[in-house]
Amino acid sequence: MTDAQETAADMPLRTTGGTPPDDGGSSAAGAPIPLLAPREGVPPVIADESALAATVAAFAAGTGPVAVDAERASGYRYGQRAYLVQLRRAGAGTALIDPVACPDLSGLGEALADTEWVLHAATQDLPCLRDIGMVPSRLFDTELAGRLAGFPRVGLGAMVEGVLGFVLEKGHSAVDWSTRPLPEPWLRYAALDVELLVDLRDALEKELDRQGKLDWALQEFAAIASAPPPEPRKEPWRRTSGMHKVRRRRQLAVVRELWQTRDRIAQRRDISPGKVLSDAAIVEAALALPGTAQALAALNGFGHRTGRRQLEQWQAAVDRARTLPEVALPQPGQPVTGPPPPRAWADKDPAAAARLSAARAAVSALAERLGLPQENLIAPDTVRRLCWEPPKPAGPDSVAAALAGYGARPWQIEQVTPALVAALSTGAETGQGPS
Known about the structure:
By secondary structure, this protein is α/β, with parallel strands linked by helices. It has helices spanning 3-10, 49-61, 106-111, 122-131, 142-149, 156-164, 184-195, 197-211, 214-226, 249-269, 273-276, 279-288, 293-297, 308-322, 345-348, 350-370, 374-377, 380-388, 396-405, 410-424, 426-429; strands at 33-35, 45-46, 63-72, 82-90, 93-97, 116-119, 138-141, 166-168. The relative contact order is 0.09.
């Protein structure tokens, strides 16, 4: 049994408005217990304003943290909107809300504004929750807490099983949540996702406190809650899978035209872009540069299921790219706003390469000693930027200031600054001097 499991075993489950399953966790033999149904049963889906108003009032009157989850239709629909929102709070029980029928949940968000929200992998759900008016001011991320506590597996099912001793049924995670009406087994699965989330939060809080990492976690949670919405990605077509095969600018233009055409169709039809045309087909067409719809039809991804009109619209996109003037063709690679790729450092700046190697080794050793992933100790991009253009002189204060400027949290700065100061002296020690 791990330290975290021992912590969980020593504490009673928070019941969040009911009683926990019999035995409160693992069986006498130590085997995890399947959690087959919510404590109060599967609640009806809230799909009208009167039911929503009653739910808002109930959750506003509840006590303690509120467990929050959202289900999207990734791979089925365009975008990342929420198609079901699940909540659970002591005194209010569990609620399942249809955000298609009730698209404005700002009233619920305001009612819970001063409440701590418990989410698993918060950054995945916060964008779609924000779109329907739900924005937390405080949160507890059980996945991130698990990472900081040193758990090797931090999926919700693995965490509930490892910490609380229950097995969650996870068979519906990748279904089409835009389906209406939602099948009862799916609703049961969705309700169970928030059933023990607050219990898991309590166990992890105690474990983080035991390890001396609770303040670290609270800083991370505050950073997530206060982070602004991400900027729209520039030139998203460049993220087409298989782009590494596309070398020539004319071929890049074909990828861009096909990607943009696909995106317009997908948005209009509210369907996942991959269901309109696969990335592999886009890359295939870019490499082949077909001159006719007939030639296009012979390529993988444009087979017999593709109708004549569809072939003509894809060929029109290819033709637009084929006839673009040279000046309008996209440049290879994306604009670089930071250091060059590390593989190029040895040639461009050997001293910087030496610093980066020393810094990576130091961060790796420190992360292992602290029992958490390297990327949670300090962002790899922050280490690269610091090593490429270190402050001069690279002392504790200047390095700490540089890390803060890159967005590192105080606990990260405190932990990594001594190791990074030593690493930044590597270039000078090899006789090459700082860059």
